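Example record

Each entry pairs one chain with its bound ligand, adenosine-5'-diphosphate.
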Amino acid sequence: MSSDSRSENRTRRAGAGGKKCPLRIGVYPGSFDPLTNGHLDIIRRASKLFDKLIVGVLVNDSKKNPLFTIEERAALIRKCIGGMPNVEVGTFSGLLVDFVKQHGAVAIVKGLRAVSDYEYELQMAALNKHIDGDIDTIFLMADVQNSFLSSSVVKELAWHGGSITGLVPKEIEQDIVDNIKKRRAEADN
Ligand code: ADP
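Structure tokens for the complex follow.
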């Protein structure tokens, strides 16, 4: 089902009485250019905290020259979430809070790797809370082994011919390597 389908059922049955309560929906936003094992770890853990988790791929105009288009990034994520039926992937531009409200979500999920992430994320969480006081931001600490990992590190490494095995999900490793090779060939011409 498309993540932006507004007619979807946003309730779940609770207990033996079968009383309906609203689905707890979370949104995990980011550029995901491309998805790394650090992102996937956050998706896996957040999917256990919510009835439904929507991974929101941001059309990020400020990040020039992305490796993958937004639709390609979303497709790569979909290739990796096969075992997580309560995870969906959507794309958005504009305000994150609008995307969150549009999907009836109650929280934004963010991953924190280091103190350097903290200041920016604190500012964004406060801003989003200012825009809509009902929406909270939940932070999950990065797994120690992913604490150095970012999409930029993966791209840099692959660009210079280094191995990205173990840094990105194996389902999409070849897609990333192939795209980088294509970009390098274009740059050399
Ligand atoms: P990046 O280019 O740094 O990977 P994204 O915008 O794609 O940036 O990141 C989306 C979200 O995932 C952010 O909340 C970010 O802090 C988090 N994140 C990125 N990399 C990791 C990682 N290795 N471990 C945990 N969280 C991460």
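The mean pLDDT is 90.
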